[in-house]
Write a structure and sequence with these properties.
The protein has helices at 17-26, 49-58, 76-82, 97-106, 151-166, 180-189, 198-201, 206-214; strands at 4-7, 32-37, 63-68, 86-90, 110-115, 133-137, 171-175, 193-196. It has 216 residues and is of the alpha/beta class. It has a single domain (4-214), classed as Aldolase class I (TIM Barrel, Alpha-Beta Barrel). The chain has an eight-stranded parallel sheet. The structure holds D-xylitol-5-phosphate and zinc ion. Zinc ion (ZN) binds at residues 8, 33, 35, 66, 175, 195. Residues 8, 33, 35, 66, 175, 195 line the site of zinc ion.
Length: 216
């Protein structure tokens, strides 16, 4: 299977968002990564439903929504109505993670769980068989364009071992500071999906970057 690529619109040009979405539609990208921030769980606010309504209408790629918000379960219905494919909730925001994961699946979306850089992979043992994906944050969430945290490669390796040991078929996605070099190492360690913010949208020829990442 080739590497899946999920460009993050956080690094897109919001003055010309439709143009950037059109570029993604025409590219080999697999999904569209959407970072929703609330200024509470993370120290930044991104965008909400009035913007997402248009993004969902314009995107031909399945939506990979990364929720950096407290109480994400409050918005399951809204994301379902947007036609979201993957709903990523942070481990750190869900004391009743198992319940939230079931609710996302019952709403017809694919549940995914995300872990912060300081959250150990071992805490996921009892949830990996219930989710379709685990998202490993390789920066502290909240901003695009940050420096890749090296220990993420080892976390991906550890997660791959956990998935094998438990028989989980969850995909492994990595998000934050990924470039062609770190991407290659992550894929070698067992990553299936790479999120691309800065590396794609600030490149002179974004579609070519996506194409190169697909071949990692
Ligand atoms: C950070 C977001 C990322 C971000 C990645 O909180 O979750 O998805 O857009 O951007 P880069 O690839 O520039 O680190
Ligand atoms: Zn993200």
């Amino acid at each position: 299977m080739s590497t899946l690529v999920s460009p993050s619109i956080l690094s897109a040009d919001f003055g010309h968002l439709a143009d950037d979405l059109e570029m993604i539609n025409r590219s080999e990208a697999d999904w569209l990564h959407i970072d929703v921030m609330d200024g509470v769980f993370v120290p930044n606010i991104s965008f909400g439903f009035p913007v997402l309504k248009h993004v969902a209408r314009l995107s031909q790629k399945p939506l990979d929504v990364h929720l950096m918000i407290v109480q994400p379960e409050k918005f399951i219905r809204e994301f379902q109505e947007l036609g979201v494919e993957l709903m990523n909730v942070h481990y750190e925001t869900c004391p009743h993670l198992h319940r939230v994961v079931q609710q996302i699946r019952e709403a017809g979306m694919r549940p995914a769980v995300t872990i912060n850089p300081a959250t150990p992979v071992s805490l996921l043992k009892d949830i990996v068989c219930d989710v379709d994906m685990v998202l490993v944050m390789s920066v502290n969430p909240g901003f695009g364009g940050q420096k890749f945290l090296e220990h993420s490669v080892e976390k991906v390796r550890e997660l791959r071992d956990l998935l094998d040991a438990t028989g989980s078929h969850a995909l492994i996605e990595v998000d934050g500071g990924v470039n062609l070099h770190t991407g290659a190492r992550l894929v070698e360690a067992g990553a299936d999906v790479l999120v691309a913010g800065n590396a794609v949208f600030n490149a002179p020829r974004p579609a070519e970057v996506i194409r190169a990442w697909k071949r990692l």
